[in-house]
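Can you give me the bound-state structure? Components:
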Amino acid sequence: MNNKVIMWSVLFLILLGLYIMGEGMIFIEGARVKFAAILIVSITIYYYIDRARSGEEIYLRTIPGLKALEEAVGRATEMGKSVLFVPGISDLDQVETITGLNILGHVAEHTAKYEASLNVPVSKSIVMEAGRDICREAYLKAGRPDLYSDDMVHYLTDDQFAYAAGVNGIMIREKPAACFYLGKFYAESLILAETGNSIGAIQIAGTGSMAQIPFFVTACDYTLIGEEFFTASAYLSKKPELLGSIKGQDIVKLLVMATMVLTVVLNGLFQAGWISFDILSYL
Amino acid sequence: MITAEIMGAWLVVLLTLCIFSFLYKDNPFYKAAEHLYVGVSAGYVAVISFWQQIQPNLFGRLWPKLEDTGEVSVLKSVWYSVYEILNFISTGFGTLERSIFPEGGIKGYDEIRLMYLIPFILGIFMLLRLVPKLGWLARWAIAYIVGMAAGLRFYGFLNSDILMQIQSVAIDFTADWGSIINAIILFIGTMTGLIYFFYSTEHKGVVGRLSRIGIYFLMIKFGASFGFAVMGRISLLIGRMNQLKDYSAAEYNYATPIILVFIIISLAIWSFMDGGNKNESTA
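Here's the bound-state model for the whole set.
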């Protein structure tokens, strides 16, 4: 076992000990398992980020939807048409919106590189501000700040279906060659994706909203399902800290799977009366 | 006699049919309804957010009705002089009547909550976007929202997506055979679904086969979800159709058939005129 694993294990035990000592005074009572779970998840992810930073190669499997991002922008450029990016209808307090804006940065870099026009209608003022910052930076990074204008990220309305109607109007009139729906979506997802489909645009969608994924799968060319969408930033940027966090999350999934198997076994033994330990009362 | 109710019904029918006209193609009726919808909703949301959130929940907590806050000290008087300055500015330097800042403070709370200065200042930072030299301060507000949301959601997701999921996969062996088989299927689905979302491993061999099973489970879930949502949409459509049917009665002066005929005739004329052709040629 290497020194770092020992160091993190000791830290975990110290923090858990602090929680137990301060339970009811500093910390709320009855959240021991949750506290331990937060520590395990955080430490595992941080450990792998640290390993990636120190130069360890991290393998990431191919995600077709992400590979198609550049292809879609290239297609729009060839056709002389614009690129439409919809970051969803939620605010920056949703992780999907943040991920969507991260991908917007990559898309904006490509549109700057290929000199394609970009249109980002948003439904929240804070998302508009963040989106403008991200696009400005992306155009600067691509060496084309002259092509950037604040108007490419513009506010429509906060209302869900009015926003959908507005984006539909943009699609029908501008006929973008590539449509990206990357963010948090609700019932407007099918309206947007169907309209994009009807104008013949190449469509790439990604969301963590499980109820909306079926609509995107039906109407879009590529769909990033749930967590595939969240890995996009790591996949596109190849930054070691992001790649490390993906590896860390995989390990967390493995731990969750192991806990599930253990829960099923221990619960079975408890119900058979072979042990008196009820694991479900601890979770 | 034309009453407000009849006028309202005609407006509802007109706007509903204008939106439905999109099923034919993009046309002036749809454009008018869309722009009206987007504009009205944007304005409505802005007004509602101000009068239901900012005024009572932010200003109301910072400057509650002075008489409700107990003894009036020198510090309080100084604090309320800031309130008067804000009132002076908001009334166009005394030219308008008081509205946002009523005389002596805002009713609703009985103590001054200075903690709310933080969102107040962050809100001002957002507005500083309008001043190019100080626009960078808006990033602080955005950073606060992103950081706060990440921390807050971490605990929520961990609780609902990890710990509760682990509890849910526990098979109840005391139940009937049908339920046990059902629980086993769910257990396999959860495990294989998790394997599909492994990114740092190549999906080959056993992992590949298990992840394929996982994607089948996901697709079954998406299919069921799609069917469920379509059923919901159809019930919404039925609701709209019922309303249109109700408004076609004599008591509403046959609003639906008259407006429907009007829209159809107008669309037919528009299609034969330049407007329709021009729209098509840009396609």
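A couple of observations. Strands of chain A lie at 83-88, 118-122, 153-155, 178-184, 202-207, 222-225. Chain A touches chain B through 67 residues (CB under 8 Å).
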